[in-house]
Design goal:
The protein contains two helices and 55 strands. It has about 575 residues and is mainly β. It has three domains: about 130 residues, Sandwich (Jelly Rolls); about 300 residues, YVTN repeat-like/Quinoprotein amine dehydrogenase (Methylamine Dehydrogenase, Chain H); about 90 residues, no CATH class.
């Protein structure tokens, strides 16, 4: 007797067509690989909400002192209470796929139509910081430039040194839209006339002398608010301090990266100076992600890097600059994504599949290493499907150290500890959000949660594992197959089917098992094929039901045939 054993499974591998063992699989669905390299039935995918409109964003986290789950649907932001299966309306935020990010204790929402802010109880559009364009201005208008204009807000302020005698104060601009207010020594003043055309404030009585004691706030034109509000993606970055918000994804300026600045000495997500942007090559930015103190910027065919550089401006102040340099001229990221990082290594979808960007010994140089070789056929299809509008999604489930590549209704999952793949059905999604051990994802109006905490009760999907064709360690036609068995651990009701199938379809066998409550524990299942002079064959296991199962290993027993001089075998 000879034994071919498998004490650990190797996952999904589309490259394997013929093997000598039984560990690799070309067809594996809804079984996942655990840390012991055992197969286990997928956890539950639970439907938790059917929203009143298409879900456009999901977020969960702690804000305002409590943990909240937020849903954007039909242009409205809702608070979702799972215990009561209820939605509470928070406010309007506009329609569009949402990107959420926390900054300064508030949650900001970007969706390509509006830029909103949620403080834990109410939501509003971001009005934007009003910058002070000049300080220490003389009544005649001469002053020291201070802060640039804010793209989000057409208002600006100018500070004057009161002379005690002048009644006319000339602003830095003419042809104004309006004057919002005038303050003297911090108190709002009403005894003045504003000449909008000339850009002058004419006081009834001259303001008292003082340093920057006269403040005028006025409005002129639109500084380009839509350049910011039409962006769809955001990330936080800023060197060691991470004090800036970077935005991209504006369809009118697809090659531009916009970034925020310091507002009155404090980092702000509501101040985007009109000149704080960078044109990246001449192609659409698809992804920006942080690696250590660098920012990696991707277009479809190229990669760039940036970092925070401190420079002194004309006024002697130290400001942050973010220069951009070329990184890779042949690879980038084919899909628009918020960025995905595993173990501080960015991951992008390129023409050859999924690439992890590794650091090398040469400063600023990165190598793009393909990690999806086992899914060679799927990746070729994914690249071709982009032309027909099938856009994959990519995210990291850090809790389980797994990378999810969503293609149509399927999720291809890569465990970056074991470097093995498996496949899950029913993951087609419009939006997704990872929080702790749970993955929230939506399709249309339906919201699902996928987590180990949901239990093993997802009976909607059959779990299938099938080995690649195997020679079972001996030359074809030189042995018989005596037995095939598997060691399993069952929890709860479960139906199993074990099959052994020869390549030519002859002599195979199948056996079915039904386990009920009370049958939990370690089991050994087996099937006895009637195969003589065996050709390449495969083993197949199918599991269904509300219970759970783990498959630790398999053994195939073979018997070598005696040589026959008459027949030459």
């Amino acid at each position: 007797m000879s034994f071919v054993t498998c004490s650990g499974f190797e996952g999904l591998d589309e490259r394997v067509t013929l093997q000598s063992g039984i560990g690799s699989s070309r067809s594996m669905r809804n079984f996942r690989l655990n840390a012991e390299s055992a197969l286990e039935k997928r956890p539950n995918r639970t439907l938790v909400l059917d929203a009143p409109a298409k879900i456009e964003g999901i977020w969960k986290g702690v804000i305002g002192g409590s943990e909240q789950t937020l849903i954007s649907a039909g242009g409205t932001l809702f608070s979702f209470d799972r215990d009561n299966a209820s939605l509470a309306t928070i406010g309007a935020i506009g329609s569009g796929s949402c990107d959420f990010f926390m900054f300064g204790g508030a949650l900001y929402i970007l969706n390509g139509t509006k830029y909103c802010k949620y403080d834990g109880s109410s939501v509003c559009e971001v009005a934007g910081y009003v910058p002070c364009v000049a300080v220490s201005s003389a009544p005649g208008g001469e002053g020291t430039p201070y802060e640039p204009l804010n793209a989000l807000n057409p208002a600006r302020r100018q500070l004057f040194n009161g002379s005690g005698t002048d009644t006319v104060y000339k602003l830095a601009e003419t042809d104004l839209d309006s004057v919002s207010y005038v303050k003297i020594d911090g108190t709002e003043e009403h005894h003045y006339v504003a000449d909008l055309t000339a850009g002058e404030i004419r006081f009834t009585d001259p303001p008292a002398s003082g340093l920057d004691n006269v403040e005028v706030c006025y409005v002129k034109n639109d500084n380009g608010r839509s350049r910011i509000t039409k962006c769809r993606k955001a990330m936080q970055f800023g060197g060691n301090s991470d004090g800036r918000i970077f935005l991209w994804g504006n369809p009118d300026s697809p090659d531009c990266r916009f970034y925020s600045d310091i507002a009155d000495g404090v980092p702000s997500a509501e101040y985007f100076p009109v000149n704080n942007f960078t044109v990246i090559g001449d192609s659409e930015i698809t992804c920006i992600v942080q690696q250590y103190d660098r920012q990696l910027i991707f277009t479809r065919e190229r990669a760039y890097y940036s970092y925070c550089e401190l420079k002194e401006d004309a006024g002697g102040r130290i400001r942050s600059s973010f220069p951009v340099f070329s990184l890779n001229g042949g690879k980038g990221c084919l899909i628009s994504t918020g960025g995905c990082v595993i173990d501080n290594r960015p991951v992008t979808f390129c023409g050859d599949g999924l690439n992890v960007w590794e650091s090398t010994g040469v400063e600023n140089e990165k190598n793009a290493v393909c990690v999806s070789g086992a899914l060679c056929e799927t990746m070729r299809y994914a690249v071709q499907a982009l032309e027909s509008g099938t856009v994959p999604k990519l995210f990291d489930h850090q809790y389980r150290r797994e990378l999810y590549f969503i293609l149509g209704p399927a999720a291809y999952v890569y465990n970056y500890d074991t470097k093995r793949w498996y496949l899950l059905d029913g993951f087609g999604c419009d939006e997704y959000f990872v929080y702790g051990s749970a993955i929230f994802f939506s399709k249309g109006t339906k919201l699902y949660v996928y987590s180990d905490d949901e239990g093993f009760s997802d009976s909607g999907f059959s779990c299938v594992w099938q080995s690649a064709d195997t020679l079972l360690g001996q030359a074809a036609g030189r042995f018989d197959v005596v037995n095939c068995e598997a060691d399993v651990f069952v929890t709860g009701p479960m139906d199993l089917k074990l099959e052994f199938v020869q390549q030519n379809g002859k002599g195979g066998a199948a056996r079915e098992y039904a386990f009920a409550f009370g049958d939990e524990g370690h089991k050994r299942i087996s099937v006895r094929p009637a195969i003589k002079r065996a050709l390449p064959a495969y083993v197949k296991i199918t599991a269904s039901g509300a219970g759970g199962i783990k498959i630790y290993g398999m053994t195939v027993k073979t018997r070598k045939r005696e040589r026959s001089d008459r027949n030459g075998i």
